[in-house]
Amino acid sequence: MTAPWIETDTSGGALAIAAGMGIAFGAALERAGLGSARKLVGQFYGTDLAVFKVMFSAIVVAMLGAFWLARFGVLDLSRVAVPETWLLPQAIGGVVFGAGMAMAGLCPGTSCVAAASGRGDGVVVLLGIFSGVVVTGLAFAPLRELYAATPRGPLTLPAWLGVSYGAVVFTVVAVALVGFRAAERIEGRS
Amino acid sequence: MIARRAYADPYVAGTCLGVVLLAALVITGRGLGASGAFATAAAGLTHAIAPAAAEANPYFARYLGGDGPWRDWLLFEIGGVVIGGFGSAWLARRWRGEVERGPRARRAGRLAVGFAGGAIMGLGAVLARGCTSGIALTGGALLSVGAWLFMITAFAGAYLAAPLLRRMWR
Question: How does DSSP assign chain A, residue by residue?
Fold first, then answer.
């Protein structure tokens, strides 16, 4: 049967799979050291570029896997949910999120791992994120216009640029390899 | 005292993370996520305290349909992240109660800045409709335009803010 295989509904089986996915996700983040704020901020001071290396290795592996599985007819990419593009809110949200990430030293997923590995700063960041979402939700009215601005739907880079999927995949791999080389050099300097 | 084991090589760990993400795409047709679970829990808590206000709220209302906010895919996934993170840290003898900060930084200062940073990330994640997991990782692998835009702007925001926060880690 062509993948994806299950519906992500609220049945017990689906939620058990969700928990299983989470366990693997959390373990991978912890092994990478991304549950440590001290390690994570090394990215922004040029001392430890683990964030970049881990993120881009993961993106390249999943991207290549999805591309080839789709090519071989195992995975139906049209049934895989591509995160929607909203240009303005994602650009502004990105800058805001990034500034918060530098302050916290963690992101939402890694704050859960930090908290689970005994770190008090992880617990506090987690509570901060939760409070931020509650307050933003309660004070949503003035943000509504920005939130709904510039929708582009599930737009992909190949569709936007008018080039083949494979060409973008190839470019991302090339950029990642150059980036890994640069990352090793930057770490070597510090 | 038994020494804590070193973290895995970043390329190896990243490859493992990529395999987990690919498995999520193949099995479920959606990737991984984190901030969505915070949004669902925020909607659920608001609803528990003030049901009418939550249902009338344009942001929270969407999380309250169906079987309610507590039987949610992402909430169970993030529960798994906590279990997986704990188990991995425990097995590697890395579990330790501490507040990570620079040797000269004050504990209260680190916690205050951490909380504020978390809250700011919460605002950013609402606007961007996701975070480093659901947008950057998942959307990055699926070549979403918004995901790559978010990744670039988030790194830019972090690099702009980081020099002001150096004291925290010295």
Answer: -PBP-S--SSSHHHHHHHHHHHHHHHHHHHHHTTT-HHHHHHHHHTS--HHHHHHHHHHHHHHHHHHHHHHTTSB-GGGS-PPPEEHHHHHHHHHHHHHHHHHHSS-HHHHHHHHHTTBHHHHHHHHHHHHHHHHHHHT-GGGHHHHTSSEEES-BHHHHHTS-HHHHHHHHHHHHHHHHHHHHHHHHH-
